[in-house]
Structure formats: C-alpha cells, structure tokens
Amino acid sequence: MQRMLKMAALVAVLMSAGMAQAADSRCVAGATFTNETVDCGGTYISGGWCNGDDDNQQPIIKLYNATIKNAKFAQGKAGKGIQCYSGTCNVEGVTFDEVCEDAISTRADGVTLNIKGSTFKNTMSNDAAYGKKPDKFIQVNQKNVKVNIESSKFYIVPATSSTPSKITGKAGKIVRTCGNCSGNTGPRTITMKNVDAYGPFGSIAGVNAKYRDQSSSIYDVITITGLRVEGYVAPKSGSVESTPPICEEFEGLDKTKHSGDSPKLGQAWADKSNSCKVKLSDVSAL
C-alpha cells in the first residue's frame, strides 16, 4: 500500500509539472494579454497573416503590462508581431521563423519593453508572404519609452534558389526608433546586451540624434555591449565606418509637418555621440 501511495504521489507530481509546461490555449492570433504571464509552451501561435509590409495590418499579440513566453510565429503568419500598449511588457523565449512587417514594437508613451532569449529571422525576399524587403525587427514608437534587448539572435537570411522574389545585397536593422511618425518625438532609450547578428545586415541600429523643430535636449539613446556580428569589420584608423554600420544617427520628423523620409546623419560611436553609446570594444565578429 505504501509503495502504491508513493507511486501515486510521483504520478501527481509529474502530471503537475506537465500541466505547468503545457501551452496556453489562448496563444492564438489576435489575442490580448493584460496584467498576466502567458506561456505558449513552445508551440506556434495559431492563425495569423502577413500582408507584406503594410503598416496598417493588425498585430498578432497585444500586451498590456503582460508577459508572453515560449511562443513561435510561422512564416506568413506574423503580421505586425507583438505590440506593447502599457506598463512593462516582457517577451521571453520567442521565435519568429519569418518576420512580416515588424516583430515587436512599442505603441504607447512611457512603456518598458524587455526582450530576452529570443530568435528572429527575416529572409532576403520581396515576396509579400515574407514581409517584402527586410526593414527592422524592433520598432520603437512613442516617447519616454525604454526597450531592453538581451541574449537574443537576429538573422537576415540570404536568399536561395528556392526563395520567391529573392533580393541580394544588404538590408534590415535590429532596431529603429521611428523616423517619420505622426507627432514623432522622443526621447527613447534602448539597451542591447549580448546580442548576435547574422547575415547581410544593412546596419544594426538606427536612432534619432535630433528631432526637427524640437529642442536639442530631445534625442534617442542606445547603449550597446557584447554585440557580435557575422562578417564584422571594424573601422580603419581615422574612420567611423564599420561593416556593417553598428549605430546610425537620423533626424526624426513629424510627418504631419514634414514630408519625406527621416534624413540619415551618419554612423557614430560613443566618443562623439550623445545617441550612439557603443565603443569599438563593445563589438566583435562572429
């Protein structure tokens, strides 16, 4: 009898552990999570869509002061990915087989977004089901926001003979603060720690070092440490230009007042920039 009781207790413990790791049934496209932690158990988000690079398509998951863990997003199903609308949003152990428009973005003033232990891929394709030409993985909108990216991997995947509408060259960034949004303003603060970047990136990060017609005290800041980049070549003596560019400065525009794209100001390093807080020693080649 005692042996049977022990075995029953062991079975109960194992079942409890299994239940704790089971995927949450709410891990479906269009879900909203509020003030909670949702563990998708390593399964794919069911449903989804990808309407090319259409900025008006809907996100797959909305977070309101919430955490999503161990979710996977399939190619052609990632839409505008995960969006943070309030409080502190945590994205942990998430995998994007193929990013569509954006993978993750901030959508409200004053939010904090933490991304950790996640993997993101974007193929060099101009096909709508692949989100068209790679742009950025993380989009930072609104003001007074904080974004922390840690221990994650980002891939710009070169096209193969079977890739539809394949493109060549370099493209994409890990993170970009919005260049020409309506009412565009900062500041925005980003940290990137122990991140790996693979493939033909156009650059790693883009931030607004100033905003047109706004106070010079308003600018975005990114701090980068422990970055490893495939094919990285450090700047030659007397130059600031690395391959690929690590941090590029832009001028932010309010598109309700100014037309056109956000002007690029050039690559910068910590010794001569208020926005690009990255030293040569913070970057190495994979």
Structure described in brief:
7% of the residues lie in helices and 38% in strands.
Provide structural commentary.
- By secondary structure, the chain is mainly β.
- It has a single domain, classed as 3 Solenoid (Pectate Lyase C-like).
- It is 7% helix and 38% strand.
- The strands form two sheets. Strands 2, 4, 6, 7, 9, 10, 12, 13, 15, 16, 18, 19, 22 and 23 form a 14-stranded parallel beta sheet that branches. Strands 1-3-5-8-11-14-17-20-21 form a nine-stranded mixed beta sheet, with no helix packed on it.
- The longest helix has 20 residues, at 2-21.
- It is globular, with a radius of gyration of 21 Å.
- The chain starts with a helix and ends with a strand.
Number of helices: 1
Q: What's the N-to-C terminus distance? A: 59 Å
Which spans of ≥5 residues are poorly predicted at pLDDT below 50? 10-20
* Main sheet characteristics: 14 strands, parallel
CATH topology: Pectate Lyase C-like
Average the pLDDT over all residues and give the rounded result. Answer: 93
Helix content: under 10%
Cα shape = globular
| β-sheet strand percentage | 35-45%
How do the helices and strands follow one another from N- to C-terminus? Answer: HEEEEEEEEEEEEEEEEEEEEEEE
Domains (count): 1
Looking at the overall shape, the CATH architecture is: 3 Solenoid
User: How many DSSP-defined strands?
Assistant: 23
CA radius of gyration is 21 Å
